[in-house]
């Protein structure tokens, strides 16, 4: 008996809706748990860097040289480089895929619904930058982009601590804002923190991009075949003087969002495999299980499949390792009598704690008054203020940018990281406190 087409369409729509909601919930859950692991990694890094008996080993360990050779080619880089420039490429790959997916069928696909979070994100970038520039002296103005970033893992993690009474629209607003924030931070890195550009590097990167396009046209859906052209893009960007982690963003934005043309055939094969498994003992169904796994790979869009595969690795391993390698500020290395160091700490922390919420709330209020967008009915400006406070947690991307801004100024770099840690900590604490007060006041109404 065949199922009427309209029922199939309704079922498909419901399935897609449920899948989208499940994807958002899964993403938020991973980010929430990851925030706790990130915090633990940062605390361990600070303890390691400031415990007299082992403090010297912190810097020595992360600058350990890793060497290997293949024929005439030899590779020699520090562990710090491998983490910041290679592993973080995978982080940016996931960010790029998340942006691509949200543009296609997520929070950014409906421009009317996305316009206010996008505007809020712009305010959360512009105002902190202006505050930093206003408070800083000429010698440290190169760090202007540090307070522009939001750490989505910490922000979502603290929002999750407030419980399920938080409006669902607040979570979506924060997620959309953080994704746009990441995109703006990526553009800042690409345009303002790339050195003298070498043309040969662009040629190598372009060949890598053509390789990706060619493989997609030939129908290769396995992620592994894209490692070689991806490595070419990474190496090309390194040669140009641009930051090589941008290769991850390029690959993420190039990842297909549509399934293979034979999706219906894959669904039928999956159903057949499930029927066969039901009729057999599970231990005798290895062929059917392999067929089911293969069909699943074909049914899921590559952007979903690869992102779901990499996201836990990024959230639970790569980002904590990055925090462990970069958050270890040795307070003894920060000269608190140095005016520049104090100015850096003050400018960064104030820009994060004050600039972020001020920019997000003001831009949201001002442009909604102009009629450019409308907040959801369950989302007042008080909730937007809470989101703004949590967005003041810069951490991962802020530390990443500080490494680029003060590459040859170790004292200022340590001060900037201290400002990030202090400002992010204050923003998180104030946000959490304000959130609990907001929830309590809402219960009394």
From TrEMBL:
What biological processes does GO assign it? regulation of pH
Q: Where primarily located?
A: membrane
Q: Which GO terms describe its cellular component?
A: plasma membrane
* Family classification: Belongs to the NhaA Na(+)/H(+) (TC 2.A.33) antiporter family.
How does this protein lie in the membrane? Multi-pass membrane protein
Q: Which reaction does it catalyse?
A: Na(+)(in) + 2 H(+)(out) = Na(+)(out) + 2 H(+)(in)
Report the transmembrane regions from the record.
Answer: 27-49, 79-99, 111-132, 144-163, 172-193, 199-215, 220-237, 310-329, 341-363, 383-406, 418-439
Q: Which molecular-function annotations from GO does this UniProt entry contain?
A: sodium:proton antiporter activity
Q: Which UniProt keywords apply?
A: Antiport, Cell membrane, Ion transport, Membrane, Sodium, Sodium transport, Transmembrane, Transmembrane helix, Transport
InterPro entries, per this entry?
Answer: Na/H_antiporter_dom_sf, NhaA
Role according to the record = Na(+)/H(+) antiporter that extrudes sodium in exchange for external protons.
Record-given protein name = Na(+)/H(+) antiporter NhaA
- Protein localization: Cell inner membrane; Cell membrane
């Amino acid at each position: 008996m065949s199922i009427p087409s309209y029922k199939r369409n309704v079922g498909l729509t419901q399935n897609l809706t449920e899948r989208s909601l499940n994807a958002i919930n899964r993403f938020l859950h991973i980010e929430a748990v990851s925030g706790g692991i990130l915090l633990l990694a940062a605390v361990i890094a600070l303890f390691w860097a400031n415990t007299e008996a082992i403090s010297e080993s912190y810097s020595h360990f992360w600058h350990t040289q890793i060497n290997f050779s293949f024929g005439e080619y030899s590779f020699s880089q520090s562990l710090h480089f491998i983490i910041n420039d290679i592993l973080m490429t995978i982080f940016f790959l996931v960010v790029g895929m998340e942006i691509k997916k949200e543009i296609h069928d997520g929070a950014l696909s409906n421009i009317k619904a996305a316009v206010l979070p996008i505007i809020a994100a712009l305010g959360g970038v512009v105002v902190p930058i202006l505050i930093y520039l206003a408070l800083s002296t000429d010698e440290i103005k190169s760090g202007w982009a540090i307070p522009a970033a939001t750490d989505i893992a910490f922000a979502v993690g603290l929002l999750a601590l407030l419980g399920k009474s938080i409006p669902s629209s607040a979570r979506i607003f924060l997620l959309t804002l953080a994704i746009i924030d990441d995109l703006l931070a990526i553009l800042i890195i690409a345009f303002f923190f790339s050195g003298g550009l070498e043309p040969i590097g662009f040629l190598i990167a372009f060949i890598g991009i053509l390789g990706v396009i060619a493989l997609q046209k030939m129908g290769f859906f396995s992620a592994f075949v894209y490692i070689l052209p991806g490595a070419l893009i990474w190496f090309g960007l390194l040669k140009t003087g641009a930051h090589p982690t941008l290769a991850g963003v390029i690959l993420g934005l190039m990842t297909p969002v549509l399934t293979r043309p034979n999706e219906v055939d894959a669904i039928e094969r999956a159903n057949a495999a499930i029927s066969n498994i039901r009729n057999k003992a599970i231990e005798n169904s290895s062929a059917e299980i392999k067929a089911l796994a293969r069909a699943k790979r074909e049914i899921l869009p590559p952007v979903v499949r690869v992102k779901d595969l990499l996201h836990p690795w990024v959230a639970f391993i790569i980002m904590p390792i990055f925090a462990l390698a970069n958050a270890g500020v040795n307070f003894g290395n920060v000269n608190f009598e140095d005016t520049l160091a104090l100015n850096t700490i003050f400018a960064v922390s104030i820009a994060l704690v004050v600039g972020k919420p001020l920019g997000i709330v003001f831009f949201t209020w001002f442009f909604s008054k102009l009629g450019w967008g409308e907040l959801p009915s369950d989302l007042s400006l008080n909730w937007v203020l809470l989101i703004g406070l949590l967005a003041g947690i810069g951490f991962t991307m802020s530390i990443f940018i500080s490494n680029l801004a003060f590459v040859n100024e170790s004292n200022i770099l340590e001060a900037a990281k201290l400002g990030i840690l202090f400002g992010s900590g204050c923003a998180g604490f104030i946000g959490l406190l304000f959130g609990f007060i907001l929830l309590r006041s809402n219960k009394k109404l």
